[in-house]
Amino acid sequence: MSLRPLLAATLAMAMVVSTAQAQTADPAPVVVRIAPEKTGPTIDRNIFGQFTEHLGTGIYGGVWVGPDSPIPNVRGIRSDVVAALRAIRVPNVRWPGGCFADEYHWRDGIGPASTRVSRLNASWGNVIEPNTFGTHEFMDFADQVGADVFLSVNVGSGTVQEAADWLEYLTADQPTTLAQERAANGHPAPYRIKYLGLGNENWGCGGAMSAEHYVEEMKQFAHYSRNLNPAQTGPNAMQRIAVGWDSGDADYTEAVMKAWKDKVWSWDIEGLSLHGYTIPNSWEAKGPSVGFGEDEYAKAIRATLKMEGWITAQTAIMDRYDPDKKVPLFVDEWGLWADPTPGSNPGFLQQQNTLRDAVIAALNLNIFMRHADRVKGTNIAQMANVLQAMILTDGDRMVLTPTYHVYELYVPFQDATLVPLSLNKGVYAFGDIVLPRMDAVAARDKDGALWLSLVNVDPDRPVTLTLPLPGSTAGARGQVLTAPAVDSHNSFDRPHAVEPAAFAGRIENGVLVFELPARSVAVVKVQ
Ligand code: AHR
Predict the structure, then answer these.
(1) With contact defined as beta carbons under 8 Å apart, do 231 and 172 qualify?
(2) CA distances (Å), 375 to each of 95, 276, 297, 331, in order?
(3) Atom 7 of ligand 1 has which residue's CA nearest to it?
(4) Whole-angstrom distance, CA of residue 475 vs CA of residue 477
(5) Whether pLDDT at 231 is above 80
(6) CB half-sphere exposure, 410, CA atoms < 13 A
(7) In this structure, is the dihedral angle defined by the CA atoms of residues 300, 302, 303 and 308, taken in order, positive or negative?
């Protein structure tokens, strides 16, 4: 059954504000209301996960420089990148792809450097993949960052046995031949694998399988990819994540959930994925990542708000088979996908990252947090040098992007408890594009402190925002991210052009009042 009509209706409800409203001036302050005594679901910290693929300079250059590099590194992994990622408390990193995962053979990337197998990276630019960065290097990287790991096994061009062997190699604590090989390669103790992706986009680059075909394959991978680490039982058990929704098509979600409802004892899944990218224009001509005007800004914001409809539609399917929400949703690829930087290898998916990316990151993170009862993890694409990156590197230089700074601001929301919130979002209109102007989320951290995320999408108009907090006599303090233009960005020459600044809200007769700048993202703690 196609869910496109449902999707269209959901999107219409979620995003479109009537033109009549748009044409009226919008002078009234935005009123935010919360019910501080009510609690929503926990915002799983894995909503703030990362994704790194063997794609362009995502790994080679972005993470791996090799132990002999003059760039400061620990066992070949660059220290500046690790320090930056530690600062945003990355909960998990997904690897090795993406499309690359379905052409990755793990044995190519273990053992002494001299025995690593070189191949062409056919998914991304046909460059040589030296496999210098393999299983042990990735596990070391995740360990240095303090993140859990999310591995994707090769369903498209690998075998069930190959995946089963990889899991045994990684996790067996008994002295099997594979466990001994792991020990000989430097890691006697079994590794811990938090998430296991059962393929990637198998409707497309992962083998162009029909949903029914994928389900049959997936069941075998789910059964035989055993985690043998005795420490990974009960609440620490590895979660297997099946391939779900392609942002245009619900077939996989329907087929996987139907199979899951009727499953037999020998297989299970603990997650279903959704991939949904923000494409400002079309897949063929996506639009520039920098040097754009308000039209491209408005189109990108409109495109990114589709995420709300995708999650709502996917949840509706999942609820039919799984009303108790036992299978979490993982949005394990999302982000702004623009045209490649002129002059770069188009297969490397390099793009600049601007204040527009920051607004997009905040809007999506807010959507995920509002759906925290079903969404238990997401992975932005991608961590370094690819698509909507946190980090850009050039030789020994590193730049933190506006998107990075949003992740930095949002750290207090990791594992916080959602607090129900409502607001009159107002209207931002550009030509015939009519969008909500404001967005906000409230949550309580483990110490009971109340945090607010406030987003002003409007590129020109600041907004006065009020939040009644009867009895409160203190204000709110935090940081705001804004910049002179929607395409303001950090470059290697001006790495600090877009950075958070101090921001506060005042209390007036029991009402918190914020003057939120145009085109901004703010996070504050209510004092
Ligand atoms: O993130 C880039 C690519 O986008 C991934 O490899 C693939 O899964 C998706 O289509």
Answers:
(1) no
(2) 20, 14, 27, 7
(3) 98
(4) 7
(5) yes
(6) 33
(7) positive
Give every CB contact of residue 25 below 8 A, 6+ residues apart in sequence.
none
Positive or negative: CA dihedral 191, 196, 199, 201: negative
CA of 301 to the centre of ligand 1 (A): 21
Atom of ligand 1 nearest to the CA of 200: 8
Quote the tokens at residue 256. Answer: 């996987």
pLDDT over 60 (residue 8): no
Whole-number Å distance between alpha carbons of 503 and 525? 10
- What sign for the dihedral angle of Cα 256, 261, 264, 270? positive
What spacing in Å lies between the alpha carbon of 200 and ligand 1's midpoint?
Answer: 8
Tell whether the model's pLDDT for residue 1 goes beyond 50.
no
How far apart CA 254 and CA 392 sit, in angstroms, is 38
- Predicted local distance difference test score (pLDDT) of residue 23: 36
* Average pLDDT of the residues in 229-258: 93
Separation of alpha carbons 499 and 501, rounded Å: 7
The SS3 of residue 133 is coil
Residues annotated as catalytic (active site), given as ranges = 201, 333
Please indicate whether residue 453, judged by its CB atom, sits closer than 6 Å to ligand 1. Answer: no
The beta strand positions in 137-179, using DSSP E, are: 148-153
Tokens 């959704």 belong to 274
Query: Which residue has its alpha carbon closest to ligand 1 atom 8?
Result: 98
User: Is the CB of 99 within 6 Å of ligand 1?
Assistant: yes
pTM, rounded to two decimals? 0.94
